[in-house]
Amino acid sequence: MCPEVALEVLDSLLLEPFFVMETALKSPCDEQHPQQAEDLHRSLEQSSKLSAGVKKDIEKLYEAVPQLVNVFKIKEKIGEGTFSSVYLATAQLQTGYEEKMALKHLIPTSHPLRIAAELQCLTVAGGQDNVMGVKYCFRKNDHVVIVMPYLEHESFLDILNSLSFEEVREYMFNLFKALRRIHHFGIVHRDVKPSNFLYNRQLKKYALVDFGLAQGTLDTKIELLKTAHSEDQQEDSVHHSVQRSVFGERNFNVYSSTYQDSTSTKLIKQSKMIDVSSRKLVTKKKIISTKTVSNGAARKAASGCPLNLLCDCYATDRVCSVCLSRRQQVAPRAGTPGFRAPEVLTKCPTQTTAIDMWSAGIIFLSLLSGRYPFFKASDDLTALAQIMTVRGSRETIQAARTFGKSVVCTQVVPTQNLRTLCEKLRGTNSSCKRSQGEGTSRSENSTAFPAAADKHLQNFQEGDSALEMKATDMKGWDLVPDEAYDLLDKLLDLNPATRITAKEALLHPFFKDIRL
Q: Quick one: pLDDT band at residue 329, thresholds 50, 70, 90?
């Protein structure tokens, strides 16, 4: 869809009755009068709480979208990302009541189709079941401002270690309600994380926000998401780099490539890995089968790749013809590092709502362990290595085969017991007893925690006494039921085809006494 057509679609959305502002707000003027501009500048100068940079940003926003001047009083900037900035403002209603609202200013380079798709997600699925809705929308040339209800909320990191177990249970239940809602409409959020799930602890209110990266499934009820998905395909070359384990002590390499089971055509790929201990380059031949397709695309790609040729451009400032001739893996990779599912990290072309459930599982893992962010990696293969350290290397490799990917790891990393891992990180229950000598000795427990994992846990615990929970104030963390870890295990299922859905999660025994 060309930008001109997308603009027409966006304008048609803005003309719908839902976006008529005069019904609730004082009528805005199309242009800003000189006196109003002067008053605005004076009010910003008098605001001592705002930094010079934020004041300048607010002035620029008023200049870019002058319709805002007579409607909103922008108080401060409350968020800033790659694609947008969010401001807190008050709106003067016709009834005389001032209402707090959040103004999301999209960057001018945003594609009109992407903006229109985000608006459709908010209007179709938003407004109920903990999914943020939209009230108004302003557009002036290439500047678009989406106005949403403002939900005062706490920082996830600030409250993480003060939450009771029951609060965590309610938090996850309400997150699944929001995911069930958007998944019903075939919306894949793609960026589920704590900062996109607002939580008002006092009022027990929740809101799933930011659909800027949302995509649609094959059966999505939002047609614009299908078009946006097809235009958002990214072409990324295969990574052949040295990877270190998440815990920094154990070094192993991870390589991911397309794996297709067929005997029609064979393609020999050269994968290079480095033994970190010896720093020697090891070249391995890997035979990968490609499917025969009717249009002959696979055969053409295979025949275009030189056979039995060694790549000689590794660690140089050039790309050789061997690497250039290889097929690129194309798949959506949008999302926040640390929350990407294995199928996203390995560039699986078919991605479903299951990637949101994986992200929810990472949130749950942080809540149970008291550690945030739990995973933090600089690139996709390091992130995959981190997942292996918790879920196991063999299990990860086996799961990758189910969605057509071949993953190679130079070391065998065992699966962690989720309860043992979370309790040791949080310092509760059985792990507390072990530290006092009441449980198994350190040597007896070494199989559950590899040396690298144990080192990681020590780093977490050393110098972190302020975050450790007092024995007299456990807040239910000494009585976490098995159902919690069973649900976590199902959320962190490495196979997206068998990963639990939001609808199934709400019916899990973990939430047996919470009403839908």
A: low
